[in-house]
Amino acid sequence: MLRFITNRLLQGIIVLIALYTITFFLIKAMPGDPFTGEKNIAEETKQLMREKYGLNESVFHQYFLYLKNVFTEASLGISTSKAHSVNEMIGQSFPVSCILGLTALSFAIGLGVPIGVASAVRKNSWVDYSGMALAMIGICVPAFTVGPLLQIMLSMKIPLFNVAGWETPRDIILPAITLGLVTTAYIARLTRSGMLEILSQDYIRTAHAKGLPVSRVVCKHALRGGLLPAVAYIGPAFAALISGSFIVETIFQVPGMGQHFVNATKARDPFLLQGVVLFFGLLIVIMNLAADILTGFLNPRVRLGQE
Amino acid sequence: MSFPSILTIARIPKIRKKLLKPLQGVLAVIACLSLWSCDSRSSVEVATDKGILIMGNSSEPKGLDPHVVSGVLENNIIRSLFEGLVIEHHSKNGEYLPGVAETVERDENSTVWTFHLRKEARWSDGHPLTSEDFMFSFERILTPSLASDYSFMLYYIKGAEDFHKGKTTDFSQVGVSAPDPHTLVVKLLGPLPFLPEITKHYTWFPVPKHIVLKHGKIGEPFTDWTKPENLVCNGSFKLKSWQINDHIEVERNPEYWDARNVGINGIRFLPINNSYTETRMFASNQLHITYRVPPEMIAYSGEHYPKNLRTEPWIGTYFIRCNVDAKAFTDKRVRKAFSMTIDQKSIIDNVTLGKQLPATGLVPAFGDYPASTPVSFDPETAKKLLAEAGYPNGEGLPDIEFLTTDQDSAKALAEALQAMWLEHLGVTVKIRQLEWTTYLDTMFKQEYDLAAGGWIGDYLDPLTFLDMWIEGGGNNRTGWSNEQFEALLDKVQQTGDQATRYRLLKEAEDLFLEERPVLPIYWYTRNYLISEDVRGWNPLILDNHPYKFLKLKAAN
Amino acid sequence: MSLLDIKNLKTYFHTRAGTTRAVDDISFSINKGEIVGVVGESGSGKSVTCHTLLGLLPQPPAQVEGGSVTFDGNELLDLSPTLLRAIRGKRISMIFQDPMSCLNPYLTILDQVAEPILTHEDVSKDEAEGRAIEMMKKVGIRDAEKRAHSYPHEFSGGMRQRAMIAMALVTNPDLILADEPTTALDVTVQARILRVLRDLRDDLGVGILFVSHDLGVISEVADRVVVMYKGKVVEQGSVESIFENPSHPYVKGLLACRPTFETKFRILPTVDDFLQTEENPDGSLALYERPDADVRLAELRNQIDTGGEPQDSNQAESILEVKDLRVHFTSGGGLLSKPSDTVKAVDGVDLSISKGQTLGLVGESGCGKTTIGRAILRLVKLTDGSVVYGGTNLGDLPLAELLPYRKRMQIIFQDPYASLNPRLTIEQALIEPMKVHGLEANRSARRDKVVELLEEVGLSVDHLLRYPHEFSGGQRQRLCVARALAVEPEFVVCDECVSAMDVSVQAQVLNLLRELQEKRNLTYLFISHDLSVVKFMSNEIAVMKQGRIEEFGTANDIYENPQSDYTRELLEAVPRADF
Amino acid sequence: MNAANNSLAHGKPGNSLWSDAYLRLRKNRLALASFWFVMLMLALCFVAAWFCPNPDKIDLENKFAGSSVSHLLGTDQLGRDIFARTLFGGQISLLVGFVATTLAIGIGVVIGAASGYAGGRTDAVLMRGVDTLFAIPFLVVVIVLQVVIAEWTKDASGWVVDSWGWDKKLTSRIANIIPLFIALGLFGWLTLARIVRAQVLSLKEQEFVEAAKALGYSRFRILFRHIIPNTLGPTVVYATLTVPGFIMYEATQSYLGLGVEAPNSSWGILIRDGANFLETEPQLLIIPGLFFSLTLLALNFLGDGLRDALDVKAAKD
Question: Is B1 in Cβ contact with D78 (below 8 Å)?
Fold first, then answer.
């Protein structure tokens, strides 16, 4: 187990370095630079600014300098578009994204799993069809439509919810629902197919032969195995929820991490972009690992390390 | 034997009960949350009571160091924290009220200016503010290693440009001096009658020498002095809290010289990127003032919030750059033909929707400077001009690409223009929509035929719209230049007489419009929503509202 | 009054394809303290009967069309689902065939064994678990306290089946429905399980319905026997009467087609030699005895197998030599780590097979016999040792040079369902190997060859465009044989290739293999856990235990004069239907 | 029990995998209805669209017009016919959905299957590669592609026009969309690869794979003929789930200049633009939104039906 984790973390470092390298050169290949603004700045000034951020050095030098700072000082650099260190920006936004992501995920699991289970148990009935239609609509209606709809239909009608902002705990609910909708749909689908697979297993028949009530057969005997495909999905999905929430964040005015990806890209902010990408990469490595470990925990037959 | 659905013998009610449980849980959580903070009053009502103004401010600022940032939204915050030599008048364009400087004197040529600083001026930590701080600030913003992108705003000062470009490292060569702690003398390159206008710009603001030096050297970038716990300022407010992408809040600065007359207790700036969200926040009383109203919602807001929607002229022009080096646009007749087939009014009424003004010239009308009028919608003449240029009905014109961005109504505008040119000139223009920075990069590299663009004035003088078109100007990028035009601008720099200046500037503008390297479309307006609780917020063309005169009082 | 009384039970399956009469008007009863064996091949309706009793059939498509099932005075078919559930697992328990798939892999054994108590009785969890562990001990799970917390996959097959039995017994039921409870087990384990069931009957007076396709097992355990065929009971009576004096042709055939240690046939008789079926106009079947059955049997008896003795080993050309073969499996290991655990599946084995002969490889599950078969074909990597085929050591041949040997050596697997790609038609599946090995000139020649092959294994041209799932198990195994023969091999590994089949089908496939061997002079490595089948097929036999050869000798020597204790133990455990 | 015997006896004609699947699909009423709905949508977008008013014809005097004879579903903010724009937009969106899904399946299935089948180091390298790609910001790649590939396709399309005499407008439309497909193809397959890999891990233990090895089939043949076809079921279901995502991606990319060129439209673009009129002119969002959602809902049920139909084993009864 320990060996498996170490091994995967070592692989993770390789992933991160590969990721850094690709991102580094992609950023260099983007048109424009951090100092391209609507009002053009004199070339001399731009040169001074490049010096300020060490962007006047050779590409080779820049590549290793950043790596060195990451490893020796755990510093992800200073943002060229906002006057903060990248560490500070991630430090402030990650907890927010984490809370939002976790709430969205809980929502997705809380809604997706029951839908998936009900659809599987009552396969090819109206329950199944409407459940799956609901899931598909969750996928089809994009966040930039759901968000405003929720704002108009809930916030502006019921004083319970703010339109946007991140002040009271209530403010988490609407963005979390908007963000979690697609994940809900995926979880519902995956749970359904997982449950269908399990429900056709012989040991479900055994459980019935023991005289167990149906609810118990479903919850105790089928659910654990039936959730496996969804669990494998949840790891990367959580990472994606944290980083991919740009639209939801701007609609609901949430100070999360997703904005950094887009804003850094638009501002050609190399350090912020590299910082958040590396952080996200780390998150993916950890989440995939966590999903594998959780799978191992749920499925006694899987021995970690054998995959 | 397989048992695909043994559960067809399932008892349905059991399942239902199971499904209900999580649902009940969700409802319970919502109920708890709603009890948690059960203030029935809206954010705006609470804030008005507390005397705190909540303002939409579009985006997270680049920073709060007046010498490092550039941009409107930073200006909005910095203006509350710092105060320059003079401040904007709260209701009159082009006039000023005393700031740190109690009185301003100038020589007859408007070349040497003397500012008498008020003795009671203090930093927010109680430290006195002296001319030494100004000297330090000018030196700092001009220090090359600070790499301030707006330092050219000080180039009017004698020797400033040389110092900034490293030609000299001796700051005493720069034309500023502090004969005593409360006097500041500024020597300019030439006559500049509107210098006070320029000093309203944050690049001229003082920074606290003692604090800046505490956190680093004079030209050292990335110091911590603007962190909330360190920032010391001299404006009517001081920094209270700063959450990235969430809010910046400023509170009353008791050390401010005119603290008694500051009407509100604080301002909360919200970086609301999404203008639709912002409008909805306003509608549900979460904001006093929005940064803007999206075009689609202007008419709607006018209907629903007639007392709140404001539409005010703003000092900016939207235009299309022509690449005069591109084969199609070398001939000014073609440029004019394209310009004359733009139905500005229709675009304003149908696309931009913000009651913008049709740009009949380049410089928007303000104060004593009369608007030019040569730009008009005249498809018949346009057709003739195009034919004269050798392209009757657009035949023979090379492919034309119209460069535009992914922002706001840029696409709809491009589509409308495309239709107009097709209808009136028979020319099919290809639309190339690019991500913002890519667009800028492409435009700066002059890799376009036509490019959407605009310019917001930095200060209240026509020069801010005209001096960019000189040969090699960083923001020209059309490839156009004209010796006569530049000679006129040179003459403008030499005179201190406002009437003469304006006459020369008008002459330059007319020449420019005759050549038509850019096709003006409209003059900007600002559309925003403002709560009736906010008192003392008057239309200002530069949108530099001095916050100290505002008052908050619940309407009705 | 009997414990369970089934009268005129009819269970039909209504599908789009039509109605299948899975159970068609059957009647029999079980008394307290009695084991009733139900015998029949797959599809005969014996399992459906069990499931009908407990209401475990999916409805639709299943539908009980009539009859009655009385259990202890209650009509089971009329019970409400709730009442039925109260009987299930409490008064009537069920033991299923495959303990691997019928135990929930995600729950511990203890969890599952204690579950019936917790469901049906109002007792504390501790008490239930205590009783579960008691019961596990009773059915012979050693160290029950400790092992109870294991998961099913950590148990061996026998242990799993014991856990299953413990689970069925833990609520002290009156009736146990045992659906092929020992089919998946090794003979020694099977013997122990049968003992447990007999003890239950004797000690607790439990009634047991014992379903099996294996007549030997039934003869060992049952008091009375019910023989089912195509949904109908064709004969029932005491064990002695059925086995010694069968009256129905189907039963006669069933008894005759099993190879036993004493079998001397060259070709086994099959059920079809005795039974003739005819479809009535109403869709039901009429069964007749073949008039020539006795003649046919006599004919077969005359062709006494002479191949039982190997040819003079000096004359026979040895085609395959296996020397000191070792196959170790390691687990773990990834991009950056070294492997960890090692399992020694085959640990130093020597074998040699002569051309045209059959070497039987026998042993219990997990002894490494299957791995040997795969190692010889290089389907698994050899850890050490050599496999010399026709003078070439295959052990260290690069994969590219292995290709010609892939043509000469073939394998037939145990599970004909799994070993055919479900998405290829028979034609595609059979043409593909020829194409890969460049046999036959063109498509039409290959097609002709396929037709020829199909006829050779007893299938017809009509089957060319069908998919594997459209065939029965026996037909599929014929297809596997045909596919193996498509490349015209000299040597075939038969890996448990009849283990999953009904005896009647098994006889057909064995006969087919025999005929092909004679016709094509094939050499077989015949791997099986079934000692009678191996005896029937092989000239020489190797007995394996834990990765090594325990004993090696001619077939007759091994069976008549076993040298090692292990072989003796194996032989004794085989149930024999000899009265 | 074996129903197979019966069907054998009755001599049902054998068929290819797909025609067989179609026969089974026909029995699933919902899937069949979905199938016809998709067909109807295709017909509308690719045939009926040409009978609609010009979708790019701007009529500023007539914006936000209601439903009328000349404008079936009214007009948009520039007075263009909404129905026509939706149908023409459907062409792009359906094409994008189809091509992107095909690409994603093509790449994802091959990489996932190769990774799962090869196992060991190859697997670790490929899967970590997937992790890496997963973390690369999509937006950055699009912006880079826009510069690199757009230039390249521009040159290529110029060459095509010059030397093959293709229609210039059409070529430029195609040339604009190719970088979009490249971007989608680059990233669209990641999750699918994971799913297929998991499938293959269990499939490769099956005996028919071992039989294939024993018959001397090459790895390539085993992978492509024996393993991959058996992963089709889950692949189809997952693929139908990703289609909406692809179609919406197209809109994002078009805004960034990599994709559909204004004034041409797509469902994604119409929905994105329409969302801005949520309070004021909701029909601008609702109409394309309905076309989009209903089509994808139908595709989803069709995918389900296909999965069941392709599963030859489950088709026993």
Answer: no
